[in-house]
Amino acid sequence: MISDEPAEAAVKRPEPTQAPEPTQAPEPTQAPEPMSAPMPMPVTAPARRDSAPSLREHALVVIRHAITTGDLGEGTIYSAAGLAKQLGFSLSPVREAMMSLVTEGTVEAVPNRGFRLVPVTQEDLEEIIRIRALLAGPAVEALCSRVSVDRASCEAALGVLRQNAEDALAAALQEDTIGFMTADRMFHEHLLEYGLGRRAAEISLRLRDQSRAFAADSVASIIDIESAQQTVDLVGLIEASRSDEARALVVDNLYYFKRAGDR
Q1: Is 225 exposed, middle or buried (0-12, 13-18, 19+ CB in 10 A)?
Q2: I need a labelling partner for 25 at 20 to 30 A (CA). Which of 15, 96, 204, 222 fits?
Q3: DSSP secondary structure letters along 212-262
Q4: pLDDT digit string (tens) for 231-244?
């Protein structure tokens, strides 16, 4: 707040006082040694968060699974409140998750009504797979090349991929479709991230989340097991630097969604 005090009062200073007598200065201490610059971090395997997922992230996992497997159908308008009740969540994380899916292009908002899935045709699915293959092929080739040059520097990334693949297979064998879908999504996220970088992983995941897999219950677990075993085999091919075979297998694995719809 600007003062209305006269200028003389505003600049008036206290009368100077006598300076205190100087005291004896303390003896100097030895200066600390300068800290050395930190060593650069390796770029082979970015660290992942180990903390528990937020409610929004957990809601995203469940909703993505419901969309992928057809539990949420195209042509139906879903309110955030209705979805929250159906899925057993509170309203806020479900609304936040649906808005994230709107941003990704998987869902569209219907003003004053709720949310609706963006339709995906068989032609759309083929296009999605082709684009994802354009990213996944070079990613596995890059990993194979890196392993052949310096296997030790790739151990962390290979360990993460191996764990994701084994988690997907274990879930598929137990007919845990949410567990399978979650581990499979993480496998492909890491595969692209370690092979080409984070941007490539985000593009591929966004396309994956727009896919649909409408397999009948009688064959869904079989397809899940086949797909999960392919990811386990793929890690083995990358570890052996068998680039051509790895590229062919990762492309075939991307057709999981097409196989699920054809059976």
Answers
A1: middle
A2: 15
A3: -----HHHHHHHHHHHHHHHHHHHHHHHTT-HHHHHHHHHHHHTHHHHHHH
A4: 999 999 999 999 99
Question: What is the CA angle 167-173-176, rounded to 5?
Answer: 75
Number of neighbours of residue 252 by Cβ within 10 angstroms: 14
* CB atoms near residue 42 (< 10 Å): 10
pLDDT tens digit sequence for 106-151: 899 999 899 999 988 888 889 999 999 999 999 999 999 999 999 9
Largest CA-CA distance found in the chain, in angstroms, rounded = 97
Burial of 213 (0-12, 13-18, 19+ CB in 10 A): buried
Nearest C-alpha neighbor of 172 from the set 113, 117, 123, 231? 231
Please name the residue that has the structure tokens 């677990």. 221
What DSSP string describes 6-19? -HHHHH--PPP-PP
* Cβ contact 192:204 at 8 Å: yes
The order of strands in the sheet holding 107-110 is 77-78, 114-117, 107-110
Tokens of 223: 């397809």
pTM (two decimals): 0.71
CA distance 198 to 183: 18
User: What is d(CA 263, CA 257) in angstroms, rounded to the nearest whole number?
Assistant: 11
Amino acid identity at 236: G
Q: What is the total residue count of the chain?
A: 263
